[in-house]
Structure formats: C-alpha cells, structure tokens
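Researcher: Here's the sequence for the chain we discussed earlier.
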Amino acid sequence: MKYLAHISNDGTREQTIRQHAEGTAARAAQFARSFDHEAWGYCEGLLHDIGKYTQRFDERLHGAAIKVDHATAGAQLCSSLKGLYPYLSYCIAGHHAGLPDTGDKADTGSQRTLQGRLKKKIDNYQDYADEIKIPELTVPKIKVDPERKEFIISFFIRMLFSCLVDADFLDTEYFMENGQVNRYPGDSMAALCEGLMAHIRSWLENEDLTTVNGRRTEILKNCIAEGKKSRGYFRLTVPTGGGKTVASLAFALHHAAANHMERIIYVIPYTSIIEQNAKVFGDILGFENVLENHCNVDYESSEEFRPMQLASENWDKPVVVTTNVQFFESLFSNKTSKCRKLHNMTNSVIIFDEAQMLPVEYLKPCIAAMEELVTNYKSSIVLCTATQPALEKLFSSNINFTELCPRMDDQFGFFKRVHFKNLGTITQEALISRLMEDEQALCILNTKKQVQSVYQLLKGDGVYHLSTSMYPKHRKRMLELIRQRLKDRKRCIVISTSLVEAGVDFDFQTVYRQLAGVDSMIQAAGRCNREGKRGLDESCTYIFNIEGSNRVAGQQLQIQTAKQIMDKYEDVSSLDAIHEYFKRLYNYRGEALDKKGILEKFKKNKYPFAEVAGIFKLIEQKTVTVFISKEADAQRILGELKIKGPTQSLMREAGQYCINVYENDLEKFYSANLVHELDPNLEDGLWVLTDDSYYTEEVGLKLHVDYGMGIFC
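Model: Thanks. This is the structure I predict for it:
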C-alpha cells in the first residue's frame, strides 16, 4: 500500500508520508543546527507523522468524514524507546494541538496530558517500520543548572517543538503550493552592515564632543567597536537624545556579523515605538529586511506584502521588531502558532529596548528565559534604556554585563536638558489654570478617564487629546498634527496618557507629569527640550498629583517608591536615584517578581506546558476589542466581516480601527445599548460601536458612560 501524507487541493498531486517525513526532518535539522542539535531536529521530523501509516488515515485523506489521531503514535513510540527519545514525545504529541502537560500516571487515555496520550488506544501504525528508520540521538549539549533542571529541559523541548512545527508547516506549504512559495529571507548580516555604514559614514567624521551630534558619534563609534566582542550580556545606557536607536542597531549588526549570528530582534514595550523604530531601520536597511510583528500591522492586505505575511509567522527576516508581550508570551506558550518562531530566537542579538518596562511581576521567569537564550542557544542580549533598572542582581551571580555607552556619567551630564520641579498635590482647577497660560506644553496623566476629563475642561484652539481611546489610524493622524503644530511654533497643549513617554519624538517647552514611577517621569521629561534648543533653566518638567485622584491599578508600589526617592534626591533623573528606585522596587516585590510561581511549576520531572501557557499573561486586566466603523475603509471591513466572518486577514486590517476597553467599561456600553457583539464564537470577543456619537475626532471613544443610560432610548 502507498501511504500518503497529503493530496494537493486540485487532486492531481500526491505526497507520500516518507517524502513528507524526510522533508520535514531535513528542515527541522537545519533549524536545530542553529543551537547545535541537528540530530534531534532530524529525528523528530522523521517520526512526527508515523501515525498516518494507517488505513483509516488514508480513508480520511480521500474524503471520509472521520477523525484520526495521527500525532499520538510517534509520541508513544518515542516514550517506549530507551535513552533520550521520551523528550521528543512532547513535541510529536503536540505538533498540532500544542505542547501537553506531563500529567500523572493515573491519567486515562481520554485526558489531554502526555501521560493520557501514552495510554490512548490508536490504530495500528507499524507499517511505518518498512519506510522509516529510527535515527540515533546524541547527548544534548546544554548546560544544566541543578536548581533549574526541569525549566532548562522544558526550554530545550520548546525549542525542538518550534523546529518541528515550523518545518512541518513549511514542508506542507511547499507541497501544497507546488513549490511556488513567495518567501524572501532578506539580506545577509554582512550586507546589512555595509548598508548601515554607508548611511552613517558622514556622521562618523564629527569628533566635536562639545556638540550633540559629536556626542552621539562618540556613543555610536563605541557601539561599533564593542560589536566585535563575543556573545554575552550587554547594556546600553544612553540618555534621551543620545542616539540610542541607531547606536543599538550598529552594535547589533556588527556583533551579528562578527559572531555569524542570524538575526536581530528588537523587543519593545509599545506598538507606537515599534512603528517608529521599524521605519528608522527600514529607511537604513531596506523595508524588505525589517519585520514588524504586533497586533496593529497588516501584512495580508496586498499581494506585495505576501512575503512579509509569511515571514511574520516564523520571524524569518534578519531584523524583527516586536513587543514584550509577543516575545515573552511566545516563549511560555504551548501553541503551535506562537511557538513556531522560537527557533529563530536562537543565534540572535536580542535587544530589550526600554528595558525598565519589562513586566515586574514576571521578571524572574523572563530573566530565566533570557539566560537560557544566551547560555544554551547562542544568543546575546542587550538591555537598552535611558533609565537602566537594577536587574543585574536578578541574573545568576556569574553573569557580567558589558556597558556599551562610553563615559556614561559624563554623557548623562552633557545631555541633561530639563530640571524637575515638584508641585506636590494640586487641584484639577490649578492644573488647568497653569496649562491655559502655556504656549506649548505636554500634560501626562495616569488614566484615560482623567485625560478625557481634563481635556474637556480645557479644550479649545490648539488643545489636543491623545490616548489609546483612539484607534491606531486615528492616533497616527493626531501625532502628525501635533508634530506639525510644534514645528510651526503654534500653540499646542496636549493632554495625554503615558503612551507618549517612549519612542514619540515630541519636543515641548514644558512637561507636566502626574506622579508615577521614576522611570515614567524621566521618560516624560524626555519630551521636554528634546532637541536641546533651549537652555536648562527654560525647560521644566513639573511633577504633581491631583487632589482626590483615584488610585492607579497596578501602579501603587511604583508611585509610593517614587515618592521616597523624590524625598531623598533633589534630582530624580540622576543615575544614583534611578538605581536606588529600581533596587527598592524589586526588593519590595520579593517573591512577587514571579507572582504566578512559573519557575516553581517546573519541578519534580514535570513539564506543565499547557498550564503555564494559560497563566503567563503579561497584561493581566481583561480587555475586550471594540471596532469603530466611522471611516469608509472601516465600514468596508465591517461589511466583509459580516459576510465572510473574522478571517485572519480581515482581523489584521480591522486592528487599525480597534480599541481595547476593560470589561467593566464594556458592560456600561452594553447596558446603554451602545455596542453589539459581532461574533460570539471569537475567543476574545469582537464588539462594534453602534452609536458613532460616542466616538469623536477630539477624544476617540468617550469613556464616561453610566449604567442604564440606554433604558429610555
């Protein structure tokens, strides 16, 4: 009997199981080669589909309406073999459904754990032995710390799982598309290095350290020189205005080229910074080499972007720009779609931009993952920020960081452009009175509702609102309008949430910042006198609290710690003040630096992949997506969503017109008959605003809605 793995959609071509197994094995071996485990990748690829060697699978492939579990067979075979093969059971069992938990020996065959799958009754698949020979495995070349043995092994299993699922997808895709797959992996690191050097050649001639550009050049040159060092741990602590973005790219490219590394990954907290950085990188390196991977980018809306859409599935580009959420939740996921990219994190330069914004309550597991990437997967990490957190003590004691910024203390003194003034607690009326007297000022408040309230009391010519209550496309328009007002030296008063604090290149004469964490206040000050065109005495960042303002969920410890630092230090932006702030903050957190006990769960020879994936959520507060259909393009998308349903392509397009709101706010909108659910079957829900008057060009989605407003409508 000829056993088949796939039949083409037109029914004219066939792929045998052996062809698919060997193709997948070759690809998985290539991926695992990046961390020196080629034999493991080859073995799992060869054995992953042996469960298809059955009569019933052949019947299903030819149209029979039956379900066939073909993944359990390879898992059961690997588990029965002596030696190291049982580790591959997780990868093979989960190559469609996701990595399973280990489970208990008491689990029955009906349970989804690995122990359950190993007891499951399946069709006889022994004909595989006529075509597939079990390859030998080599001893893993990973360093194992006894304190974290299970976590380290679980990480190894995840990486192998990634190699398998990506190889399986790619081999299947290649067959189904008859080899016509439009993938472009991008230029080599050496070529990208040449492109960068051509772009910055004239900059490197400036050696005048009394000028801003001369200082930027000094930092840039040092990053290029340090790039020749071998893999490891690095910091780039550069003050605002010091050219951090291009300097970090220069280090990464030279480091990758010198160490034969495959890609550069920028991990960034906000999508607004991603869009800006990705444009800078694209202008220098060519946009075909730079992949944005986050919720607000659409790579499916035109055939031109097809290669990027394919690359976004597995990060197959030389430069990837992504978010903290996407990066770390993928590392702790068990799903094939999220884990597929993990093997492309190996042998990479990984830059954590705005490192102070790494999620505090998940710091320990995040740092454990960083250490694994460096120790066993041939990557380097760079913590990149203007407010370097005191993270070193959370890393293993034998780890040392190389600072990439030359004469760091002197640079911070040179680039100091603002002075801080503490206004204490003031009334909302006093704040508004101050803002009315200003010509160009930015006021950053802690909540979207506060921003809307203050804006409504202040609004008029030259006054603007900015927050994530505006959908991304609207927000981009507003950012451009504000930049133009500032450039034209027209009156411009902006009331905003913290979204402007990182990566938004505003330059205001004055900044007001509601009391927050020290890092947030310093980032806010970076929007004041950003270009250094005014004197220090003319440029002030005012810190204040509003009388009667509500507590900010999840931020109270940061605010209380910041108060202590302000009491002790006259200048909260000094390196000593910053270091002490983070030291106190992390000491107060203690065990809460791993509040879900993620690391503790990987103990006693158990690997709770599915359980951990379910609880590792960097954004804890549950939000729901609301679609705004005011613009013509949004109305077109809504019409297609109603007809076709929420396809992946349409949902990505829709992201430009969506806002995330908290569940309690959605309940108020629902009670007032202002929203309806588009598709109840979507896992995270999709709601549509039905009354356009509740979304305005001024503030976006109005958040001040009370329960019961819709009763008399």
